[in-house]
Write a structure and sequence with these properties.
Length: 476
Amino acid sequence: MKKSNPNPNANRNILRLAYVVAGVFVCMLLYLGYFLQFESGSVINNAYNPRVDLLAERVVRGELLSSDGQVLARTVTAEDGSERREYPFGSLFAHVVGYTGNGKTGIESLTNFYLLTSHVNLVEQVFNEFSGVKNLGDNVVTTLDVRLQQTAYDLLGDRRGAVVVMEPDTGKILAMVSKPDYDPNAIAENWEALTADEAGEARLLNRAAQGLYAPGSTFKILTLLEYLREHPEDYGEFRFDCDGTYENGEYTIRCYHGEAHGSQDLTQAFANSCNGAFAQIGLGLDKAGFGELAEQLLYNRQLPLSLPYSESSFAMTAEADTWETLQTAIGQGRTQVTPVHQTMITAAIANGGTLMKPYLIDRVESAGGQEGKKFMPSAWGELMTAKEAADLTEFMRNVVATGTGSALRTDAYTVAGKTGSAEFETGRETHAWFTGFAPAESPKIAVTVIVEEGGSGGRAAAPIARGIFDAYFSGN
């Protein structure tokens, strides 16, 4: 009896189905690996994850500690068993540590899962389970330095603004201050007033990460870098005669308070923050290339930052008109940046062009002090070449040595930096900026300061940075 051959079309369909199933399986494995590596932490710590809330029924929320072990947040249990979150430093760490109760913010939110996970010894856990007693949650040691945070907080005083302090070679955030602030110990009692914000103070806003400001003359770092890229051989020949104003057709750009800087080479123009010189430079730049540089330095892009933040914006396109080009070149117009983003750019310059991912959590420990998880520095990528970083450092050193950053001149250490005065509304004083690092030849610390309506960056922001540098080096 002759056997019939199998249907070849059926075999091909079965084979195709097998390939599809295998492909879906491989995709699922790849996604699982990606999820575990990159997304699991955010899902686990999500405030809307109900499983985390269930942990609070069995675990006393752990402590948040400074880098030297001082308590920044802890849970206090009353005799009746009720719990409340206590912040020993009051408003000092309000925005960066955050709060828990009316939702969760700051590090309280980032480390929610860790704080509600207990690694006390197994015998104690079993005993507590049978006794109906909660286990002690793990503690989180942050990168925050109490002394630097206090210094920045005191120097900013009652002015609105923000300060960010970061290690360029590790990405550790040592201090983050935002004002006006609030008392996280009284967040529930003051919630309606804080959210109503009738005075327009936005006290709950972390200005360091979420405050968007015109960068003013600090943006000249980018304008200078683009000019160096387009004129690698002849930038030393640049000359500009400043009489306090720069006119182009119907448009006029003025230097701060109309100061006439006289004959300037490129180093002097940057050190003196000459608006006229940089407005002229901006008109000659390749606009498309300028936009690409801005995006390379993370404008219009996501930042490698775990805290909630606002995205900085560079809006100028290749079709921009003369006025927008002039304004953009000096850090005005529609360009906006957050203080933490400005710190990242400055830290990358200090670190030879490589940006280290900013981070706030050093390690997780059990209630008994046994280390469970350690967070290590990691590089995000190269924002510029090592030579470009070295060139910018020299220009920034001259800002302090001979220019607008004179408040930072000292024999104790060298500083490379840039001041800025950013206009934001007609008839109101400019925002005052400073961003820089020290020692210039071997950077250990990067600092960015903004004082809202502070006027001159050299007079309002630079002295605050000087105080932070002094505090850092006096303790090291």
